[in-house]
Design a protein that fits this description.
Elements (H helix, E strand, L loop, with lengths): L4 E2 L28 E2 L34 H7 L2 H4 L11 E5 L12 E2 L2 E6 L12 E5 L4 H13 L2 E6 L7 H9 L6 E4 L4 E3 L2 H12 L12 H10 L20 E5 L4 H12 L4 E5 L17 E4 L4 E3 L2 H12 L2
Helix pairs in contact: 1-7, 3-5, 3-6, 7-8
Amino acid sequence: MAAALRLPPLLSSRAAPTATTRRSRTTSSTLRVAAQLDDTTATTSTSSTPAPPAGFTPPVPKRFEVKPGQSSNIAGAALALPFRLGTGVFVLGYGVSLVDADQIPPDQYALEFQGRKVKETSKVGQCPRPTKPIEIYEFEGCPFCRKVREMVSVLDLDVLYYPCPKGGPTFRPKVKEMGGKQQFPYMVDPNTGVAMYESDAIITYLAKTYGDGSVPIMLKLGLLTTITAGLAMSGRSGKGSSYSPAKLPAQPIEIWAYEGSPFCKIARETLVELELPHLLHSIARAAPSDRIFSRNTAPYIEDPNTGVKMFESASIVEYLRATYAA
C-alpha cells in the first residue's frame, strides 16, 4: 500500500520545498521512499538540484576488494567484529546447513564447501513486519546508537535514519522539539505511534514488536555492552560524529547495508557527517533472498535525487561528498 512520508519540518535553510510520494514495494520488495519538505520552514536560500560529478560513472562492484589507500579505514572499522562478537552480522535465529548445489537457486549467491552449498536460514520470516519504515534519530559515533543499529540488523528492519551529528542544524534540534531533549538514539515508530529515548528500551521494544521477544546476548550485558560498543568504534577516531556542511536532499538516499560490515560503516559515516537522511534496508546474513543481491558487495546505494545507483564504499563516499558537501 502506497503511503506518503514526510521529513520533519526543517529548522534551517538547507533545501527548498519539494513534494513527492512514496511508492509501494515492488515484487522484489524494494521499498521506495520520497520525502516532502515542510514549506513553512524550509527556504530556497541554498537550494540547488543535486547532480553527480561531471563524467561520473558508477564503479563495477568487486566482492571483498579494498580500494587502494583504504586498507587502514577498513581495518579500523573492522575492529567492531571482535569487540562485538559479530552482533549485527546475522539475523534472528540464524542457522546454516550443507545442501546439494541444486537446492540453491542459480541466481542466488551461496558459499560453497566441498562441492555443496551452504544454506542459510533464519526466524525473520516468522516475525511481524512494519508497514512503514521505523524512524531513528542517531549518529555513527555513539555507542548507544550502535546498539540499536545492531538490533535493526538482527531483526532485518527497514529504518529511515535521520542523522544527528554534533553541530548538525536540522535533526538534532528536531529531536529536542519532539521529545524535549537532545538525547540519542531517539525512535519514532509510525506503525504504532510509539516514540522513545534510551537504547535498551528501544531494543526491547523492537524485539517484542518485530521479533520473537528475545535480545541477543551481546545486547543485554548492561555496562559491558556499552563499553564494547564504544571500543568497536575506537578504530575510527570519531568518524560519523561531527557535522560537515552539506545540501539537504529532497528525498532520502536508499542504502542496502548491515551493521556488522566495515565497508557499510565507512559509507554510513559519510551519510551521517553530511546529515543526509537515508532509508536503510538491512541485509545481514540470512536476510530474505529478495534482498540478498547486494549483501556480498554491500553497501549499495540508490539516490533518487540524481538517479545514481552504485556499489563500492570508497566510491560511495567520494560520490556523496562531491554531490552534497557544501
